[in-house]
Structure formats: structure tokens, C-alpha cells
Write a structure and sequence with these properties.
The protein is of the alpha+beta class. The chain is built from 13 helices and 31 strands. A hairpin with a 7-residue loop joins strand 13 and strand 14. Helix 3 packs antiparallel against helix 4. Pfam families: Omp85.
């Protein structure tokens, strides 16, 4: 096994060296070799802020903001290398005569020349950008530096003093309804005395007023009807602002609109002449909604429940957007379109038309996946068949048949070296809460869902054993807000039975209890609750968070009814398996600190606690915690740490078997992430953690959780590259152990043993992980 691991490591290193060599060859090319006499390559535009009143940090921000405006952009670079330009140069002028050169020409990029840059235009552009943020008297100068046919243009920007807001006056007609409605929200104005003048803030203030009016019925109002006049004639660098409604604003935009009739086309097919308004065969439902659906493809109450307007309501943008959002989220329609049309029957009223074009009722999707981990690599095939609107209420029925094969590439012993698995899963999802206690809707803003799942899987570890597993779930998912989501499985049942245990595996079980625990028959029954909070989508925040908490219960009521107590030998079976009885609590918290536009510090704390009692001494194998691997403590293999100070198990032939699990878990990670160039990023990280057992186990000395748990943490660290292709992130990590918990006390920190020059040390300690996505 060690030899195999060494071969794999060398192969991966050779691959990395090959990429580095190719990059070096490209970098050795000249970016200016094809330039004509007198031409220079434009490589960079710098903006230097000349000011004694602006702090260094704000100078950097202003410089970055202004620099992004310069035109044209230099040739794209990766790690400082204009790679697209090199491809273009390699193609040359005779690209049409050679297929390879044509390809290079296609993916390449023409050189951006100094002659392409209009300095005067950029100077005016920079002045304009500074005026837009309050520097009305800004000055800009520029000069050019050319070295070896490479040109850099330096722009010196002198902002001078910034203008601030001295007063804000809403100049409205308070006798009109429009004037009163605008004045009623003036205390929420974004234009605040003492703040810098900013064109963006003025535009945002117009949008704020428009949005507020839209929620008060002013459907035809527009931000363009708001005029913000600025008086900068003061000599004290102050401005007065006057907010008014333009005189040319149409009369229709000054009056709130009400909703008249609501028409819904649930099975609409768009014609070449556009959207039709024919309401023939319309059926009135609930005295509010006209349905045009002769085939009755959808049940009317289901759709009506997601329409947030009723006849007589004042138009409201929030209700408008929520209706569209709900209809889209039902995942039954390919297109969701609505039109608001002036009513011919009622003045200042709107008729609403909803055109819903269904998705295909049935769909088939086939996926072929490649799987990579520190221990197993392989492939998987998924065939998914979906039936939409299964019961005419936007329900979704899906069947997924899957199969896969994975083989060992490191970490485990030969008897566990490869496996294949196959199975199927059936899921029914209802876009509402199905409850015997009547209609429940936790939040009308988002659609709650009820799910019923059934799953069967067959796993064959060819040289060890086979497992048959069945899982059943019934529960609800609902979103409380954009940041908070709940998942309550009222009933979660898992049943696992082993078969076909090999003679070799049976022998190993006699010496390694962990092997026996992995194939114990398992039966869990109980509720499972997950709560997720995240605001990481708010990119403007400096600090963002992610948290997922889990409460998992099994056999609690059943154990009480049976009077189970393993201490007294009173344990019970269901379907030839001892049912598990435990309380399990897990939490995964992450913090992301934005250090700059291209760097951040990401940290994670993962904690798992459990208490097994009654019918169980410990958690079942599938529910136990483990650490190590590409998304955990990367200096150690998956499941290769703990529990406690227990050393990794060795099989009788001396091979390592990494399958260490426990009832309690603590994991800590922190990672500095930064952009190198283009899509290439890098990171440096430190990981720590371990797992422990709830109770003493004579076969696992040192595995029980104790007050000395901090002294039993495994620690590792390293660095790696991330290739961010937007749709896919490929991650490479090199890491080494800093602290090994199963070594004797006083010898666990291993900094003194680090020796990169030793091939044996690298083979035993240097861990390489190739993975998809960030670890957290």
C-alpha cells in the first residue's frame, strides 16, 4: 500500500511539474516580438492619487475605483503572463494555412497598443468619475513611460476638496396625494446632511422613492420623474439639494392604481402574434380569479394560493414580485409572464394577466460523474426520471437509479480496496405543508414543501462484505427568510443489514473492533431537524456567516416503551437489528472576513455531540463522526484520526486501515484565500480536530472524551492553488502534520521532524489533495 501511495504521489507531482514547465515555456516567449517598428505594447494604466487630506487606505480604494474605468484594457494576464497574446503571437500572420495556428489565433488576443489609448479621453473620464463622488474641482494629468516596447501610462489625479451635503429639502405639493406620499417617507432618505455628494446616492434615492410609491399603488410612476437639483454655489464646499417631481410627469403616474380583474392561463402556449388576451371559456374561482384552462391541467386552489393580489387591492410591487417568485418556484412552468393592462371598465384600475407556459410533464436526465477524494476515486452514473404536476397541484415525482464504482488510491488496506454500489431513490415533493392539523404556512413569502422519500442501496466491498440499506423520510422544508431555512424530518428511518462477509474480513474483525462496528446491523427511527443560516450572498458585507445546526433523535420513545437498558442486558431488536437510541447534536459555523476585494480569511468551527443510552452504548456506524480528508484536516487521510489518542489500526499484514470514528467531534479550520491572477487563486491553511468516544472501550485505550481533549487535537497545515472557472473550482492542497495526537506526550508536536529534503519524510508526511470546490 505504501508503495502504491508513493507511485500515485509521484504521478501527481509529475503532472504538476509538467504544467509548471509548460507555463515557463510560454512565459519565455516575447510579448513584443511581432510589433512593427515604432509600435509599443500597452501593458498598464496607473492612477496615482495626489492628496494630503485623504488617508492611505482611501487613496488605495479611490485609485482602484478610477483605474477600473480606464480604456482600453491591457491584454489579459495569468500570473503576470499575457497568455492570450502569446497564443496570438504563436499563430503569426499565416494562421489560415495551419489548423493548429488557426486554433491559437482563435483563442488568442490581438495586442493592445499604446496607439489604441486616448489619454485625453481617459483624463476626462477620470475627472467625471471624481465629480460623480463629490470632487467637483478635480484635476488629472498623465504621462507615458516606454521601456523595451512596453508602455505604461501614469495618471496623476488631484481630487482637491470634496463637497458635502449642507441641506436637503423635499419641495413637494403637500396638498396632493402624491406629495403627501413622498413626504411620508422623507425621513428614510439616503441624502443625509454631512455626507459626501454622490451621483450614485442620488440615483439610489430616486429608486427608493419610486419603490416606496410602487408599494402604495403608483404603477405608472418612474424614477425619471424625480428631479434632484444641486446648488454648489457656496464657497465652503457645501451643496444644497432640492428633491422635486418633474412638471412633465404624466397625470396617470400621479394616481394610485387598483387591481380589477385577474386572469390566469395555467397551460399557455405562446403564439407567433405574441401573448393573447382572449378570455373566452374563463371560469371564475373564489370570486377573484378567472382561469382559462379548458383541459384542467392544474387545480385552481393551488395556483390561487400563490397569487398575492385580489380584486380591489391597491397595486403593490411587493405583491407583484412575490407572485412571480412563487410561480417560478413551483418548478412547473418554463415561462412565467404577467401583464398589467388599463381596465376598460374601472378608471385608475388594472387588469392582470398571468401567462404560465408549462415545462414538459416528463423529463429524463442522465449524469456521469467523476469522483475524487484522498482515499477513493471512481465514477458514478445517475438516471433521473421526473414527473411534474403529478397530481395537478404542482407536485413533483422523481425516480433516480444510480450505480457507481470506486477504487482505493491510498489510505486503506487491500481488503477494502474497491467497491461498487447501486440502488434507487423515489421522492414526492408537495409545494405546501401537508398536516392533519389543517392549513399551515410558516411564511407566505416563500413556498414550504412536504417531501416523502424512499431509498434502497446495495454496497459490495468486493473483498470484505456487502450491505443492504433502506431509508424512508417524511418531512417539511420551509424558508423563514432569505437567510434562514428549516428542514424537519418528522420521521426518518434507516435500516442496514450486512451479508456476504468474507473469511479474510471475519479474521480481521477478531483483532480490530472497528471493522466489526462497520458492519453491525443498524436500525434508526426518529425525527431529524436541520436549521441553516447564511448571509454569504451579501457580498458588500465585510463579515459574513454560515451556520448549520442539526438535532437527530432515534429510538427515544421506542426505548422508553420497551424499557431498554444495555447496562442491565435489556436490549431489543427490530427486523433483526438492535434499534439505536441516542440524542445527537451537531453544529457547523463559518465566518468569512473580507480583507480586500481579492482576499479573505475563512474560518470554521465544527462541533458534534451525542448521548447514546437505553438500547445503545454508542452511535451506529453511519451516524458516527470522523475527521481527516480533503474537506477536513487535510494533513491526514479520511477517517484516519482518533478517536482520542488511539493510534491508527494496523492489519495483520502491517497495512494501514483508516476508519476511525467517534461519538464526539471537534474540528477547527482557518484559511487565508487570495487571488493570484485571472482565475488562479491560492490559499494557506491550518486545520485541527479529533473525535472521541462517549464511553470507555477496553479495545480502544485513550479513545474516551476527557477534560484533556485539547491536548489530543491533531493539527496540520499547508498551502494550495484554486482554479476558479466560475462554474467549477478545482482545488489542489499540499499539507503536512504539525501535531500527531497518538504520539507519546511531549512528542506530539513534530515541527522538529520536518525535512522536505528527505524522500522518506515526504512519502510518509506530505499529503496531496485534489478536490472540487472549497473545503468550507
Amino acid at each position: 500500500m505504501k508503495m502504491r501511495k508513493g507511485v500515485i504521489m509521484r504521478a501527481k507531482l509529475k503532472f504538476a511539474i509538467g504544467i509548471l514547465t509548460l507555463t515557463t515555456i510560454i512565459a519565455s516567449c516575447s510579448s513584443t516580438k511581432n510589433l512593427k517598428e515604432g509600435e509599443s505594447l500597452y501593458v498598464k494604466g496607473n492612477v496615482i492619487i495626489d492628496s494630503d487630506t485623504i488617508s492611505k487606505e482611501n487613496k488605495e480604494k479611490l485609485s482602484t475605483y478610477l483605474q477600473s474605468s480606464l480604456m482600453p484594457k491591457p491584454n489579459k494576464r495569468l500570473a503576470g503572463v499575457p497568455f492570450k497574446l502569446y497564443f496570438n503571437n504563436m499563430a503569426g500572420d499565416s494562421a489560415n494555412k495551419n489548423m493548429i495556428k488557426r486554433f491559437f489565433k482563435k483563442i488568442g488576443e490581438e495586442p493592445v497598443l499604446l496607439s489604441d489609448v486616448n489619454r485625453e479621453y481617459n483624463e476626462n473620464l477620470l475627472r467625471n468619475r471624481m465629480e460623480n463622488i463629490g470632487f467637483f474641482n478635480a484635476e488629472v494629468k498623465s504621462d507615458t513611460l516606454v521601456e523595451e516596447k512596453k508602455a505604461t501610462i501614469n495618471y496623476t489625479a488631484k481630487p482637491n476638496l470634496i463637497y458635502r451635503i449642507q441641506s436637503v429639502k423635499f419641495d413637494m405639493d403637500s396638498t396632493s396625494q402624491l406629495g403627501r406620499d413622498i413626504l411620508s417617507s422623507s425621513d428614510k432618505s439616503l441624502l443625509q446632511i454631512g455626507k459626501n455628494y454622490s451621483l450614485d446616492v442620488i440615483l439610489n434615492e430616486r429608486d427608493r422613492i419610486d419603490n416606496d410609491l410602487k408599494n402604495k399603488g403608483y404603477y405608472y410612476f418612474s424614477p425619471d420623474y424625480i428631479l434632484v437639483e444641486v446648488d454648489s454655489s457656496h464657497r465652503n464646499n457645501r451643496v444644497d439639494m432640492y428633491v422635486t417631481v418633474k412638471k412633465e410627469t404624466p397625470a396617470q403616474a400621479k394616481i394610485p392604481s387598483k387591481i380589477n380583474k385577474i386572469y390566469i392561463f395555467p397551460n399557455y402556449t405562446e403564439t407567433s402574434s405574441g401573448y393573447q388576451r382572449s378570455t373566452r371559456n374563463a371560469e371564475l374561482f373564489d370570486s377573484s380569479y378567472y382561469f382559462i384552462d379548458r383541459r384542467r391541467t392544474f387545480r385552481k386552489p393551488v395556483i390561487a394560493n400563490h397569487i398575492f393580489f385580489k380584486p380591489g387591492d391597491v397595486y403593490n410591487r411587493t405583491a407583484h414580485n412575490q407572485t412571480i417568485s412563487h410561480l417560478v418556484s413551483l418548478n412547473s412552468w418554463k415561462f412565467v409572464k404577467n401583464n398589467f393592462v388599463d381596465s376598460k371598465e374601472v378608471p385608475n384600475a388594472l387588469d392582470v394577466y398571468y401567462y404560465l407556459t408549462p415545462l414538459p410533464k416528463k423529463s429524463l436526465r442522465v449524469e456521469l460523474l467523476g469522483k475524487m477524494a484522498s482515499v477513493y476515486n471512481g465514477t458514478e452514473v445517475n438516471v433521473n426520471w421526473t414527473l411534474r404536476n403529478a397530481f395537478k397541484g404542482a407536485e413533483q415525482l422523481s425516480f433516480n437509479v444510480f450505480g457507481g464504482y470506486e477504487t482505493q488510491t491510498g489510505g486503506n488496506a487491500d481488503l477494502n480496496s474497491s467497491y461498487y454500489r447501486y440502488g434507487m431513490e423515489a421522492t414526492v415533493t408537495f409545494p405546501r405543508i401537508l398536516s392533519p392539523f389543517g392549513h399551515i404556512n410558516p411564511s407566505r413569502r416563500f413556498i414550504p414543501k412536504t417531501y416523502v422519500k424512499g431509498r434502497y442501496e446495495f454496497l459490495n466491498r468486493r473483498k470484505a462484505y456487502t450491505l443492504n440499506s433502506i431509508a424512508l423520510d417524511y418531512g417539511y422544508i420551509w424558508q423563514e427568510s432569505e437567510e434562514k431555512q428549516h428542514d424537519l424530518a418528522l420521521l426518518e428511518i434507516t435500516y442496514v443489514q450486512p451479508k456476504g462477509i468474507s473469511e479474510n474480513y471475519q479474521k480481521q474483525m477478531d483483532t480490530i473492533p472497528a471493522l466489526r462496528h462497520a458492519i453491525d446491523p443498524q436500525f434508526t427511527i426518529g425525527p431529524n431537524y436541520n436549521f441553516t443560516f447564511q448571509n454569504t450572498m451579501k457580498q458588500h458585507l465585510k463579515n459574513t456567516f454560515y451556520f448549520k445546526g442539526n438535532l437527530d433523535l432515534s429510538g427515544n420513545i421506542l426505548g422508553l416503551i420497551k424499557g431498554a437498558d444495555f447496562n442491565k442486558g435489556k436490549t431489543f431488536k427490530l427486523f433483526d437489528a438492535y434499534f439505536s437510541q441516542y440524542i445527537k447534536i451537531s453544529g457547523d459555523g463559518r465566518h468569512y472576513l473580507k480583507l480586500s476585494e481579492n482576499s479573505q480569511l475563512a474560518s470554521r468551527v465544527s462541533l458534534g455531540l451525542s448521548y447514546s443510552y437505553g438500547n445503545s452504548r454508542s452511535l451506529p456506524y453511519l451516524k458516527q463522526y470522523y475527521v481527516g480528508g480533503p474537506n477536513s484536516i487535510r494533513a491526514f487521510g479520511a477517517r484516519a484520526i482518533g478517536p482520542g489518542t488511539l493510534a491508527p489500526e494496523k492489519l495483520s499484514n502491517g497495512l494501514f486501515y483508516a476508519d476511525q470514528t467517534g461519538d464526539i467531534k471537534l474540528e477547527l479550520n482557518t484559511e487565508y484565500r487570495a487571488k493570484l491572477a485571472g482565475f488562479v487563486h491560492w490559499a494557506a491553511f491550518i486545520d485541527a480536530g479529533n473525535v472521541w468516544l462517549q464511553r470507555e472501550d477496553v479495545n480502544k485505550p485513550g479513545a474516551k472524551f476527557s477534560k484533556n481533549f485539547l491536548n489530543e487535537l491533531a493539527v496540520g497545515g499547508g498551502a494550495g492553488l484554486r482554479f476558479d472557472f466560475t462554474f467549477l473550482i478545482v482545488r489542489t492542497d499540499f499539507s503536512i502534520p504539525f501535531r500527531i495526537p497518538y504520539l507519546p506526550k511531549g512528542e506530539r508536536w513534530v515541527f522538529k521532524d520536518i525535512d522536505f529534503g528527505s524522500s522518506k519524510w515526504r512519502k510518509d508526511n506530505l499529503m496531496f489533495n485534489l478536490a472540487i470546490g472549497y473545503p468550507f
